[in-house]
């Protein structure tokens, strides 16, 4: 209630008082015109204005005489010649025109005479509509809360801050200041700090008043135009005095003729309130804020009226995003809605000091009421007409915010009385999508692909989560989350091949609600196959990926087909582009001491077979002969148990350039598998390695030999253990002759070589001749294959050592 002077209180309590009304209109130059004294006459015929808990905008209607005596003066804004429509300078300035500000002032006196210093402002607004009727002119307007309804937020802006937040009253002032010019209306007043810091949010395009009121409603507070003693009108942000003390006024039967209405109803009683909100402080495995609920109840109301449920569902982007804020909202709803179901309406002599949410006491009349009741003012309707001033009061429950606003926010209304409302307002679902089915896993290198089908029943899905573990029957959580996407197929490529993994999928709706998990499927990521490798990868080696070009798990893991035998990849060994061939090599930095080794996958070997292990290494710095690269070939039996004998070990210590390191060993009789170890020896010198491979060693085979076919009396010389002449091509492609021959005549063709054994050009080759006495001879091999002794003794010609490059 507004503050009363002692005299005003005494006058109102006495009951026998006069009420005076005046209406003041402001011209554009802010000059004031009192319609009660304009041109020496009282033009005001009556006024009516109302204030209600359900609407924070007050509306007033004023009736005045349209014309003065003889019709000379008219208040109609369409009569340009009227003196009333001329400003102080004589220019045309219609007085009662839409957009003009006006205020209503009253005073109550015990002697019936108005005092100049006792006027009280009860309404401040702006004319919205003027209707010059036949006898009386009426105009109506909203107070300045309604004026702010007309200012529209045209540009979306961000307000609040996510670190410590921004006070809600500061955000309200910013919204007003960003849209409404200074001086347009009253300022914002906050008697008590609501202690609510807003995180960052985007203010949508809407009327300023709606934006500010929405913030207040999220608190369970209200903002309305109220008179601030000593300051004037102010937009006041405050919470209703829900724990009201003594009533501010008492009305007895002598003040009201009869109760206009006295009814009780269950319609708006709610004694169980659940608030659904998004908790920014508690996030799921995806990092999304979880949807949660808090509940407030009134056990006394439940016992009296039964359980009457209500749900308030806050959007995911709502500023109600902590448990404390949600609980405060639920408690406010319980305080406003779970109390008395009694509503009274009564008419009393005009009482200007009452305000919405004031607590008043109504004494019994012995007819409708049998005992005093204390209720809150929910509606004030003031009327001045025919010299009589009345105030119609509607009372209900305790001080609260608008029941209509709460009803609009109820996601689960008790609407047996309103089937249409029930059809459009349903309970917000907390259940996520039903579990998907038909999971189809396909193993891939170091992972798998998993396709599935969404459920055809239940809530619609928005995204799916994939959870993977090596433990069957696991519970999905942050540690098992592998992927999340708006898709019905997942691909994973960072698992250990050959190890059995288990996977489940579960859905999430647009509200963030998570559904049940699917049936579990088992899968085993496969190893690298030759057709998985990059084009530069070598296939000839028994060790997969010897050149380190296949690196499907990225540079943070060892190359495909390799793993660390000692040390940690990423620390003791890293991928480098300082390679011997192609793109990549493995570098072992000079970090901790000790051998740091890569080890290949197992590969099959044959007992008794010789195998050659090799790599190339670069030791950039250090002392030759000490430390460097290390190469080991280790054997394993059929159970993969290491055989301690027969391992090949090599160490390279050269400095400054890429250098080969090679060793070989014969597989023991019990060996079935082997692995290659390659890396840095047990010092702290940096080493790069590349092209680490193992190949079986093949003993060179004797080439097949062909027997010579002689002509012209030539033939083989078989004495003294000599072999008959033959020819063959060795592993290098050279044609070789062996054996000895004898003939009759020099410069005759001894034999002709087949086409594939002929030289590229004529060959002159020295030979040993003679029997008893050794002489040097000359042998000519023509490109036609003819072999002719052109000098020397025909009795003995040795062909041993004769060789030449043959045709390709």
Explain how this protein is built:
This protein is mainly beta and 808 residues long. It has eight helices and 53 strands. The strands form eleven sheets. Strands 1, 2, 3, 4, 5, 6, 7, 15, 16, 20, 21, 22 and 23 form a 13-stranded mixed β-sheet that branches. The longest helix is centred in the middle third of the chain and has 15 residues, at 323-337. The radius of gyration is 52 Å and the shape is rod-shaped. The termini are far apart. Residues 412-428 have low confidence and may be disordered.
Which short descriptors sum up this protein?
8 helices; 13-stranded mixed sheet; about 40% strand; mainly beta; about 800 residues
Task: Give a topology summary.
Layout: H1 6-14, E1 18-26, E2 32-34, E3 44-52, E4 55-65, E5 101-109, E6 120-132, E7 136-143, H2 144-149, E8 157-159, E9 166-167, H3 168-179, E10 188-189, E11 197-198, E12 201-203, H4 208-219, E13 222-228, E14 232-238, E15 249-251, E16 261-264, E17 272-283, E18 289-297, H5 299-305, E19 309-313, H6 323-337, E20 342-349, E21 359-362, E22 373-385, E23 388-396, H7 403-409, H8 419-424, E24 437-444, E25 447-453, E26 463-469, E27 481-485, E28 489-492, E29 501-508, E30 514-517, E31 521-523, E32 562-566, E33 574-576, E34 585-588, E35 596-600, E36 603-604, E37 610-618, E38 629-636, E39 642-652, E40 659-666, E41 673-680, E42 687-696, E43 706-707, E44 715-716, E45 726-729, E46 734-738, E47 740-742, E48 749-752, E49 763-769, E50 775-781, E51 786-791, E52 797-798, E53 802-805
Parallel strand pairs: 10-14, 15-21, 17-19
Antiparallel strand pairs: 1-2, 1-5, 3-4, 3-22, 4-7, 5-6, 6-7, 8-12, 9-11, 13-14, 16-20, 17-18, 20-23, 21-22, 22-23, 24-25, 25-28, 26-27, 26-29, 29-30, 29-31, 32-35, 33-34, 34-42, 35-41, 36-41, 37-40, 37-42, 38-39, 38-41, 43-45, 44-47, 45-46, 46-53, 47-52, 48-51, 49-50, 49-52, 50-51
Helix pairs in contact: 3-4
